[in-house]
Design brief:
With 651 residues, this protein is an alpha+beta fold. The protein has a domain of 240 residues. It contains 23 helices and 18 strands. The protein has a 5-stranded antiparallel sheet. The chain has a 5-stranded antiparallel sheet with strand order 12-11-13-14-15. Strands 1-6 form a two-stranded antiparallel sheet. The termini are far apart.
Length: 651
């Protein structure tokens, strides 16, 4: 078919179209000018794209969540971070974050992390506690631990929120109506003020029961006197004290008038990224034992994480948005599949990119200036079977797993923490190389064997609260035993006998420790047996990351494949807070599901590998020489044959 020529619009039509577009554009601009300022969304409601640090000069709002009012310097009531920050930040979104959402319904618990440890030296108890459904840990409710008790027990490392706001849980000992809720303390992570004092926050919560006042005690513009713990049950924080005696002890905030400007606003020092020192308060460790002896190295004798030394901050990798869903940085973390940028905030993602090392030098990696490792000579199978941390993280492995202490378990921040000697509970060991259930890879973990009293009904173990056990068998636990350090096996047996007299209780009294379950036999001695409730609890190690020169494999294949290499043949003691006889000692391969005979046979091959290499090179040389000889003989034969076939010159 013949094609039709394209027709162009007339000049008048084109001019009319341009005029319409111009008028529409002007109309949009004018409309934008006419929008009242009050209709513009506050900048904090939609997180701005600038890296500029917002200047937080704000009026303080009181704790009345229904109708918050501004604080003036003469007030004696505490301010609330919730009501002060809500103008720009949605508190209900923030409270879904990782530090506050334990126990909330429909929360992905993710891979195991460090649990809390309910420690009671009086009853030789060290029991892992978590509201997250991780293996071998106990839910607080299963131990009779209410949110009120949880807050008081672990206040030193709580940022508020979570259990601090679960006031609806029945508890006859709770005093929420007197102390108020423990709302999220934003400054616990975000304060850039050098005078911020988390220890004071802890003292106000655990000792004085000043839950709603505690955040105000950590700021540079307010101080607190009085204690809710001294107030009667009839005390109402929102009302004036009933009498002079009550007024003397009532919690009272004193604000520094010099910190308020003419509009009754105060300045909060809140940098964009939480300072590392705030993270270290809850996430530090101390090495207790050394390979060459029991002495513990001082902090100045140890090295920080290689990333920290290179200038990276904690928040450089552990990022989050307004939802405070902090990236934990492990492969397969929820949300990583939908967002490749988040997926790259892991060891492998940052250094190797989305590809594996099988891609060789063309692999994508190097985020934040991270070097792209070549792993020259390393079979790629290692990267499929081992976590990156196996070679690069934690204490350097030794023939026997060492004992360490962590901030959350041992209160490292306190200068005079009670019972914090080298034998302080819980007894945590590192590194223990286990096959991790959550990813199937072998990785370094920290490990603890739980110890607690409980009852056995059939095959079901129900732990008992340390308070219940101590109150029932107080006379037995307080007996002085010459030469004994802590609770003895005899005291455990006697306590079981006392618990057994309770006819109303369901189940036989037991004690779990050192990987075993103990009952009191007919002769009065303890009888041990295996039980799943006595299994160890472990969680992966990520930091501190060692430099390349201190990684496993930097000394050769025998770092891991020798007959006594710690990664497979290192020993782990099932430690118990009570001396119950010779402890169980396990080898690392038992936690990995590997055959020791195969491992030893494989390790034996490495002893002969140098000889195999020499024999191989010599054999290759001999074969090469023989082939060369035959090649030369063949060339000589070919030359003679060619000479005979060539035309002869005339005589």
């Amino acid at each position: 078919m013949p094609s039709h020529p394209r027709t162009r619009p007339s000049r008048r039509v084109r001019r009319t179209g341009v005029a319409v577009v111009q008028v529409a554009a002007y109309a949009v601009v004018v409309a934008a000018w006419l929008v009242p300022a009050a209709a513009v969304e506050p900048p904090g409601k939609d997180i701005p794209g600038s890296r500029f640090t917002y200047i937080h000069r704000l009026p303080l709002m009181n704790t009345n969540n229904e109708k918050p009012e501004a604080i003036n310097p003469k007030d004696i009531l505490p301010f609330s971070y919730r009501n002060t920050c809500t103008k720009c930040h949605d508190y209900n979104v923030i409270r879904t974050g990782w530090h506050f959402n334990a126990g909330a319904p429909k929360v992905d618990d993710g891979r195991p992390g460090e649990p809390w440890f309910w420690v009671d030296r009086r009853t030789a108890t060290q029991i892992p506690v978590s509201s997250r459904k991780w293996p071998n840990v106990w839910q607080p409710a299963a131990l009779g631990m209410t949110p009120w008790r949880f807050v008081k027990e672990f206040a030193l490392h709580l940022p508020g929120g979570g259990p601090g706001e679960m006031t609806e849980v029945p508890d006859s000992k709770a005093r929420w109506q007197v102390s108020g809720k423990l709302e999220i303390n934003c400054a616990a992570c975000h304060s850039g003020d050098a005078s911020y004092d988390q220890i004071e926050f802890f003292l106000q919560v655990a000792g004085a029961q000043n839950l709603m006042w505690a955040p105000a005690t950590t700021t540079e513009f307010s101080t607190l006197s009085g204690a809710a713990a001294k107030m009667p049950e009839t005390f109402d924080p929102s009302m004036p004290p009933e009498d002079e005696a009550m007024a003397k002890n009532a919690p009272t905030v004193t604000y520094d008038k010099m910190k308020f400007d003419s509009k009754n606003r105060v300045f909060f020092n809140l940098p964009n990224e939480p300072p590392d020192t705030r993270c270290y308060f809850c996430h530090s460790l101390r090495q207790v034992t050394r390979p060459d002896g029991p002495a513990s190295p001082e902090v100045w004798q140890t090295d920080v994480d290689v990333h920290t030394r290179a200038g990276l901050s904690c928040a450089a990798c552990h990022r989050h948005g307004l939802d405070h869903a902090v990236r934990r940085g492990y492969e397969g973390e929820p949300g990583s599949g939908e967002n490749p940028i988040l997926g790259s905030l892991t060891c492998r993602g940052c250094h190797l990119g989305a590809e594996s090392a099988a891609a060789g030098p063309e692999t994508v990696g190097g985020r934040l200036g991270a070097p792209v490792p070549r792993h020259v000579g390393l079979p790629t199978l290692h990267l499929e079977k081992l976590a990156c941390t196996t070679c690069h993280s934690g204490l350097y492995p030794t023939p026997m797993a060492g004992r360490i202490q962590t901030s959350r378990a041992h209160s490292l921040e306190l200068s005079r923490a009670p019972f914090r000697g080298d034998d302080a509970l819980p007894l945590i060991q590192e590194p223990v190389f286990v096959r991790q259930a959550w990813d199937g890879k072998i990785g370094p973990n920290r490990m603890v064997w739980p110890a607690f009293f409980g009852r056995l009904d059939g095959e079901t173990v129900t732990p008992l609260s340390p308070d219940v056990v101590y109150n029932a068998a107080k006379d037995e636990f307080e007996k002085k035993v010459a030469g004994a350090k802590g609770v003895t096996a005899e005291q455990v047996a006697a306590a079981l006998a006392v618990l057994g007299r309770d006819q109303a209780a369901k189940g036989e009294p037991i004690y779990v420790a050192g990987g075993k379950l103990y009952k009191r036999a007919a002769d009065g001695k303890l009888e041990a047996s295996d039980h799943p409730a006595a299994a160890s609890v472990s969680w992966p190690i990520a930091h501190d990351v060692r430099p390349k020169s201190r990684s496993l494999g930097s000394g050769g294949c025998t770092d891991c494949h020798a007959s006594e290499a710690p990664m497979a043949f290192g020993k782990v003691t099932a430690e118990s807070p009570v001396d119950l006889g010779p402890p169980t000692v396990l080898a690392m391969y038992e936690f990995q599901g590997r055959n020791p005979d195969e491992l030893r046979a494989w390790a034996l091959s490495y002893k002969f590998r140098p000889m195999f290499k020499v024999v191989g090179f010599v054999t290759a040389g001999v074969i090469g020489g023989v082939l060369l000889l035959y090649l030369l003989l063949g060339l000589a034969t070919l030359t003679r044959w060619a000479a005979k076939r060539s035309p002869q010159p005339p005589a």
